[in-house]
Specification:
The chain folds into 3 domains: about 160 residues, no CATH class; about 80 residues, no CATH class; about 100 residues, no CATH class. Helix 6 crosses helix 10, helix 8 packs antiparallel against helix 9 and helix 11 runs antiparallel to helix 12. It has 13 helices and 10 strands. A 5-stranded antiparallel sheet has the order 1-5-2-3-4. A 3-stranded antiparallel sheet has the order 7-6-8. Strands 9-10 form a two-stranded antiparallel ribbon. A hairpin with a 2-residue loop joins strand 3 and strand 4. The chain is an alpha+beta fold.
């Protein structure tokens, strides 16, 4: 069976249902704005889902780091071993004692759910399904397609309301009560949210005041939707509060990007107005007091970088993660950044967020 088309003609829900009803095994590849997601099916059930990667287990390895289960040096070492032995990442990490198999499976399942949550936010793009024999690993959690559709579509429907309650993930999450007070109230909170008390406590203890809300959610291993739901419930219950970001270059757990998109847009508008005013009013540049060319170049470079950072933050809140490369920003974002020197910047995604710096010439 080979199935391909565009999402505007044949929606993702219909594609999933067709594969499920025919109990097909194989790989579904969905492409949108230069991003590719692959979904593995076994006899009609979802076996795995992850962003496409250039290396085996690449997306999963990155997710292990983001969730705090593994350090970046440990992951790089595991990838080097994998290149030489061709062993699965799970086997290498379990054998070395760096990550128990149970923890690995938990995060692998979370990656599948996170990927599906992001995937069903795509309204356009193309898809291709190729039927092929797949082995069902004994440790893999097969997800019924109907349950996936019901759960994911419900979360997509409820997401806008949650996003309004937490419009800026760069704000720091700070506890307002002691751990003893939290223990006294966590059972009721678990009943209200449907999230286990153990997982709620993991999120609460991660909110120690230094990390932004989005990082706390990642460390909770609840996923974007459930993590945001839990954090908002704690905010409403008075267990947490949000404080303004405090950049600290010495703290590797904090992402470099910490500007609120709305604030950044205002700053950019003001800066753009100043630069434009300089250009349109030549009479203010008197011969005896000219505006130094270096100042104008510096202002223009700063403005370019702020535009890029703003688009990165918008991408994060639209898709749930930063892009792996600047070229993976949406078509509209790339159009807005056209001519703004994207190729002159060094960008890469990291466990703490991302790094962006101007390339040396």
């Amino acid at each position: 069976m080979s199935l391909h088309g565009v999402l505007s003609d044949f929606g993702l829900a219909e594609v999933f249902q067709l594969i499920s009803h025919q109990r097909k095994s194989g790989t579904l590849e969905v492409t949108h704005d230069g991003r590719v997601i692959t979904v593995g099916f076994f006899e009609g059930s979802v076996q795995s889902a992850a962003p496409a990667s250039d290396r085996p287990d690449g997306a999963l390895g990155e997710f292990l780091v983001q969730s705090g289960a593994l350090s970046e040096p440990a992951l790089e070492q595991a990838f080097r071993q994998q290149a030489g032995t061709l062993k699965p990442l799970r086997q290498l990490l379990d054998g070395s004692g760096q990550l128990p198999a149970a923890d690995f499976d938990e995060i692998a399942a979370l990656l599948t759910r996170e990927t599906l949550f992001g995937l069903f936010g795509w309204d356009d793009g193309s898809f291709r399904f190729g039927a092929q024999q797949r082995d069902s690993a004994p440790d893999a959690e097969l997800l019924g397609t109907e349950a996936v559709l019901l759960d994911t579509l419900r979360m997509r429907d409820e997401w806008p309301g949650l996003a309004r309650k937490l419009p800026d993930g760069s704000l720091r999450a700070v506890t307002t009560v002691s751990i003893e007070d939290f223990h006294a109230r966590k059972a009721r909170l678990a009943a209200e949210t449907g999230i286990s008390a153990e997982r709620l406590e993991r999120l609460f203890t991660a909110a120690e005041g230094r990390l932004p809300a989005r990082r706390v959610i990642a460390l909770s291993r609840l996923g974007t939707f459930s993590g945001t739901q839990a954090l908002c419930a704690m905010l409403e219950a008075g267990l947490l509060r949000l404080d303004s970001p405090e950049p600290d270059a010495s703290d590797p757990a904090q992402p470099v990007a910490r500007r609120r998109p709305g604030f950044a847009a205002g700053v950019i508008a003001v800066a753009a107005g100043v630069v434009l005013l300089m250009a349109l009013l030549p009479d203010v540049r008197r011969e005896d007091h000219p505006v130094p060319a270096g100042v104008l170049r510096e202002a223009g470079s700063w403005l370019e970088e702020e535009h890029i950072r703003l688009e990165l933050e918008a991408h994060r809140w639209r898709t749930g993660q930063y892009p792996s490369a600047l070229d993976q920003l949406s078509r509209d974002a790339r159009a807005r950044l056209a001519g703004r020197g994207r190729g002159q910047y060094i960008y890469f995604r990291s466990a703490a967020g991302y790094r962006l710096s101007r390339a040396l010439r």
